[in-house]
Amino acid sequence: MGITQILFWGLSILALLGAILVVISKNPVHSVLWLIVVFMAISGHYILLNAQFLAIVNLIVYAGAIMVLFLFVFMLMNLNADTEPQKNKWLKIAGVVAGGSLLLVLVAALKHADMKNQLAVMNKGEIGLIHNLGLVLFQDYVVPFEITSVLFLSAMVGVVVIGKKD
Amino acid sequence: MYLTLLSIDWILLVEKAILIAIIISVSLLVAMYETWGERKVAAFMQDRRGPNRAGPGGLFQPLADGLKLFMKEEIIPNSSNRFLFVLGPGLAMLTAMMTSAVVPWGSHFHLFGRDISLQIADVNIGILYIFGVVSMGVYGVMIGGWASNNKFSLLAAIRGASQIISYELAMGISIIALLMITGSLSLKTIVEQQQQGHYYVLLQPLGFLIFLICAFAECNRTPFDLSEAENELNFGYHQEYSSMKLGFYLFAEYVNMFISSAVMATLYWGGYDIPFVNDASFGQANGQNLLAILQVVSLFIKIVIFIFFFMWVRWTIPRFRYDQLMRLGWKILIPLALFNMLVTGFLVLLRQNHWHF
User: Fold this and answer.
1) Mutation target vs B (from A37, A40, A60, A127; most B CBs, 10 A cutoff)
2) Which is nearest to B233 in space by CA: B314, B160, B167?
3) Is B241 left (phi over 0), alpha (psi -120 to 50) or beta?
4) Structural domain containing residue B74
5) Of B276, B252, B269, the residue nearest B304 (C-alpha)
6) What is the largest distance, in Å, between two alpha-carbon atoms of chain B?
7) Are residues A46 and A104 in the same domain?
8) Is A148 touching B (CB cutoff 8 A)?
9) Is residue A85 over pLDDT 50?
10) Using one digit for the tens of pLDDT, what is the confidence trace for B269-315?
11) Can you tell me the mean pLDDT for B150-169?
12) What is the three-class DSSP state of B117?
């Protein structure tokens, strides 16, 4: 195994382990922290694919901003394993069945997907570099990109306006 | 060997390891003497003497402080979350240190027939990397505050985190204006551009001001140190901490201050460029190694000036109230940063069009 493969397997195991722990952790704050670990692992995968921009933006936006908001909510609500209401047994079973069928659908869909032509190139591809990404965004997809940025800006201005009310 | 397949040579690995060791020890050393400097500056401003017992001019005071912190009893509250309680300070320290990886501390040495770069990693997303690490820095404060299981700690942690998030926005927008001019995110490229032309503070005075204010807020320094406002929150998010775990939190603040000074010097004040000297011709005349040493010295002088400024402000300006802090961040700095971005974009376009409309 080369270094890339060792990293790939390490990151994959970390991501899966983290994802499982997100679900089975009793304490919601621990779940959020494990989710951050998952994001880190996924960013590591992006770096292996030479998509550095995507990796770091994933960290800034998801791990750095959204997860902090999650943490805010959980910490202020003071959720503990003791205070959490016990759910109905049938509800739990229904949840397991629904989740299982989703897994089945996903596996079935992925099994027939055309994987051969869509393999990502480890450690080489130039697509993810910020230079190429910028060219694509500002040449081929200018209008959607600009509309999205205006949307974000208006969200930000909206926050300021709401804050100004009182 | 797979390692050679991946074009990693062992000498480079050793070289980088040594560089990392040096940079980390220097950051810690600087942080140590920042605590001494802070007291001396405070004393100077308040017409006192400051620490003067341990060693000449109190120079050994940081060592004594460190010894005191190490020797103190380590208390982990019964009701706290043990693992996270210990993780918090470690995380704060880790994120403070990680930023130094992309700062170019000098051009390069020429030793043993090799060019040894004085930058740990010249990644092409340098600035974004710094942002990513800074946004991770929130977790050290939040986890520590929450795991202490103390209302005051939690309140302080939430204050600190929301402050950091709010000021990150304005900081990001002020950086966008700079990036429009540089066209590169690599810190090394930005420094090299400044060596050839002007320092970017001349082109981006408003952007620099916004960045400076946001850097104060990100480092939790006065006038933005609301997460450790003693008179409102007892002691802040590290109230339950003792011994070296408290020391780590306090130390991380000083490391942050050092690194953010380095980043500001790099982005806006020419980085390791020696002012009023043509670095390239100086290097040819006097040898590359001497040039590299002088460049490091030059960068450190800039950093020390910034650190002094941090302290100067701390002992001059009183703390904001929380609503004032949020108003400054959201209603003043963000619109100002947007305005700066628009003007910069306009001027950059105009220059590309050779100053014709």
Assistant:
1) A60
2) B160
3) beta
4) 2-48+59-352
5) B269
6) 70
7) yes
8) no
9) yes
10) 888 888 887 777 777 777 788 888 888 898 999 999 999 998 888 88
11) 84
12) strand
